[in-house]
Specification:
Structural class: alpha/beta
Order of helices and strands: EEEHEEHHHEHEHEEH
Shape: globular
Number of domains: 2
Strand order of the largest sheet: 5-6-7-3-8-9
Strand content: 15-25%
Length: 259
């Protein structure tokens, strides 16, 4: 499934009645089965754009189009979101959290349980089905969030800085696990991050946004083989891509901080 972001703009009105442009004429395409990272300085509108793509916010101008055939069962969704916060229901077990979207879609109980177990196994949570969120580590809680998103079999997986709350070691492991899941499922993924190294390590292409109002500064292809390994961080292609992206947003980031 392709995602076409067609000249999307978003304007807010603050409490004083002043108009604030968050996004202006943002346009790019995420190809089917592609892993694209969306990166920019703080306040550039990355999360706003992701929410527009997810249908949680309406754009002021432009639109988002999904192009291609859906796969999966009849209740499969166009997109699903994995949030920065774990966003789990504390009174539900891991299994029941994963089943939540399927419940909302009206999937019968037996099928819900079967599908949830399949994605629990895919995300390395087998044996933890009956644990509650407070009994799981941060990395495991985020795996539950990923399994919940995958269980509704979305054509497109949207991820809003999903590992930013994790410690460095857990974050690295979760990056590797997500790439393994992507390799097995070949979902179209749009991944928001503020971390240049993470974007280069994981993505096929990085879309770089300017400071507010967010506009596309560049689309940077990542010329690294797959599967990715942590040792690639020392390869010239990795260093060149990271340096190029930093050169694009360094002044933007300084201006955003000053603002």
């Amino acid at each position: 499934m392709r995602v076409v972001v067609d000249r999307v703009s978003k304007t807010y009105t603050d409490r004083s009645g002043r108009s604030i442009d968050a996004l202006r004429d943002v346009a790019f395409t995420v190809e089917a089965e592609e892993f694209v990272a969306l990166l920019g300085p703080s306040g550039c509108g990355k999360s706003t754009l992701l929410n527009i793509i997810a249908g949680l916010l309406a754009p002021t101008g432009g639109g988002v189009w999904f192009d291609g055939d859906r796969t999966g069962t009849g209740d499969a969704m166009l997109s699903a979101m994995v949030f920065q916060e774990f966003a789990l229901f504390p009174w539900r077990t891991a299994q029941k959290n994963v089943e939540f979207g399927l419940e909302e879609a009206g999937v019968p109980a037996a099928e819900r349980a079967t599908r949830a177990r399949r994605y629990i196994e895919l995300t390395g949570l087998a044996g933890f089905e009956t644990r509650y969120p407070h009994q799981l580590s941060g990395g495991m809680r985020q795996r539950v969030g990923i399994a919940r998103a995958l269980a509704v079999e979305p054509a497109v997986l949207l991820m809003d800085e999903p590992f930013s709350a994790l410690d460095a070691q857990t974050r690295q492991l979760m990056q590797e696990e997500l790439l393994g899941i992507w390799d097995r499922t070949r979902k179209t993924i749009l991944y928001v991050t503020h971390n240049i190294q993470e974007a280069v390590y994981m993505a096929d292409r990085v879309v770089v946004l300017s400071r507010r109002p967010g506009q596309v500064l560049a689309e940077v292809p990542i010329e690294l083989d797959r599967p990715r390994t942590e040792h690639m961080a020392g390869e010239p292609a990795f260093i060149e891509a990271a340096d190029h992206i930093w050169s694009l947003i360094k002044a933007q980031a300084r201006a955003a901080i000053a603002e």
